[in-house]
Amino acid sequence: MRVAIAGAGAVGRSIAGELLENGHEVLLIDKAPTAISVERVPQAEWLLADACEITSLDEAALQRCNVVIAATGDDKVNLVVSLLAKTEYGVPRVVARVNNPKNEWLFNESWGVDVAVSTPRLMSALVEEAVSVGDLVRLLRFSHGDANLVELTLPEESALAGTQVGDVEWPQDTSLVTIIRGNRVLTPSREDSLEAGDELLFVAAQAREEQLEDLLSVRRTTAS
């Protein structure tokens, strides 16, 4: 897979390193000469250019990329890069970094963004995820399709504890994608049973999040 990353700062270089380790082809683009540090990520291609310019993106052969990541520290730049990547070059997957949470509402399909990653929101979500049981925590927003990656730790008193995945009437537009149980990561099957303390990861439409939280957190009733 060929990936172009606009922004060769610490974030861009870190992403590039991970992708290269996984066997992908990576191009780093930055207009600042001081950001071109080939020795830090020697396996990547490097391009000194302004990623907001069509001529630069032509030189980068963006049409050959499977994914473009707009990872600069400037939200305006990330939006322009995303829009150009999607509309001018037809890049199938565009991921954009959101620096200021106040701008998050702009990072949607209208600007060519398929996935928006807000570092402040993600850090906050990870803190919530670490301390919350029974509360739905939004980890990541997928702009295309208005869906989110959400997590909930199943509480002891949940009525679904001990229930098989296939027996649960999940809300529409939700999909259980992973169960994290201790040190194990499980791909759920219909026969798997939910256990108290399981971390459940869903891709869910935003409109279904409250319904999903109510379903998972409902308490068992005890006979008097």
Automatic annotation (TrEMBL):
**GO CC annotations, alphabetized:** plasma membrane
Q: Name one GO molecular function term.
A: potassium ion transmembrane transporter activity
Gene3D superfamilies, per database record: NAD(P)-binding Rossmann-like Domain, Regulator of K+ conductance, C-terminal domain
- What sequence ranges are listed for the domain RCK N-terminal? 1-117
One family from Pfam that matches here is TrkA_N
Q: Which PROSITE patterns match?
A: RCK_C, RCK_N
Residue span(s) of domain RCK C-terminal: 137-218
Superkingdom, natural source: Bacteria
Renumbered to this chain, the signal peptide range is: none
In Swiss-Prot or TrEMBL terms, this protein is called Trk system potassium uptake protein TrkA
Keyword annotations from UniProtKB, A to Z: Ion transport, NAD, Potassium, Potassium transport, Transport
Keyword set includes Transport = yes
